[in-house]
Amino acid sequence: MKKITVTLAALALAFSLNAQSAKEGEKLVDYGRFESAKKTLQSSAGKEEADYYLGLSELGLGNIDAARQIFSKHPDNFYSQAGMARVLFAEGKKDEAAKLLQTIIDGAKKKDYEKYKIAADAITYSNGGNINDAIAWYQKAMEKEPTAKMHIALGDAYMKLQTGGGDAMTNYEKAVEKGTDNSLAYSKIGALWYAARNYESALKSYEQAKNADPNNPLPYRDLADAYYRVGKYELAKQNIEKYLTLSDKSTDDLVQYVHILFLSKHYPEALSKLEEVMKSGIEKPYFYRLKGYSQFETQDYKNALDNMHIFFSKETKPESIIVDDYMYMGKIMNAMATVDTGNAKMYADSANFYFTKAVAMDTTADKAELYRKIAEGFKDSKNYAQAGAWYGKIVAANPNAASLDYYYWGYWSYYGQNYADAAKAFAGISEKYPDDRHISYYWQGLVAAAGDQEAKTGAGVKFFEDWLGFSKEGVEKKNDQLMVAYQYLAYFYYNQSNEAKATEYANKILTIQPDNEFAKQIIEYYKAKAKK
To answer: For position 158, which CATH number holds?
Structure first.
């Protein structure tokens, strides 16, 4: 009798451990920790409920065939049947999946709330099913067992409806009232608040989720994603690093980490982490994109170019090419023009080719920001003529282009020695923005003087004199600008033998620069001439 008692006790303990293992596996699945769930559930493999969550773990890892094999072990069990429906959804066989789920529901009795929930879960956490069926089944199950888990699942189902946010929030809050799955419920509430741009409430909910279960990685993942989307990359980096200490560090997690490292400008770290991922045997075409982008930012232009070429050769889906791919290729070509100066023209032409492709792909109505980025790329490579040309495209495409756009069109065209375009740009400021003539007159004078370096035609005289005579409150004419205007005017009037004007401007030069030899020579010339 004693031996039997011991055996029964051992069986009871084994049952308890198996149940605990299944429960822990379920929690890990909820937290997206599929690899950890697999390890936890393997000790209970063969048990129907444990195998269900083991199959879900394989699905979460993208291992559809492995999931099918696990669910096939218990073909008559409704858990496994629901799992098989998820496999069918993953394979795009939604009609077969729906038929299998209906079989579960048809066999459910009034008290079989679990059948309704498990069947509903298959739709909620897959793609392709009728979400209204899932909602109806959850509500049926709720009549018998309104658990926190049930409210969370129903909330997730409502989230798949375009107008379901309010009902989702109600169910997540009811889950919190139950008090058994608060960390998961608060994570869901935080995500809802974030989607509604109520950031203060979102942060509060994420904090509550962390406090309810410090081992829940979801709040850190969601915070990282939230900060990532609003451009706060350092905060995104801090949170995803915390998330990685709690998660299973899936490939997707690590790639997201690489993205955040790149966007937070931790380029060497991004490259190092990407190498780590690739050495593990995982390779995706877009990994080479990330390498190319990061190497450009670390000024490793040759390797950046090589990796972008590999990316384009490996990425066979045209829809996977994005505007930034062409933009970075353009920027890399621009940079190569400064490194390999013997082939500078070839690289500049290639840069223009890729930038043009980026513009053609961009779907925004107003391409001004894209043109600015391209112009800045040419500016950085000291190809000022092209920088000016791309700023000119902003003006050409926008009748209401800002004064500053006209200015940069003219400014970089001037330094690129495209004086015709520079003259058009600064004339445009005078015409459209008369309050900014203190800018346009001066630069029109510079442009004209560039074609009249010996000051014989006087092309710049009117512009410089208009500039000197133009005043605007708060605008000060700087000495270096005054020197340019005075010297050109003094030189021109000297060439015209206009003693009064030539000496007037020469004396103005001397008030700024008393030892200026050019001005002294003009004054001495006329003094000597007067003595004869």
So the answer is: 1.25.40.10
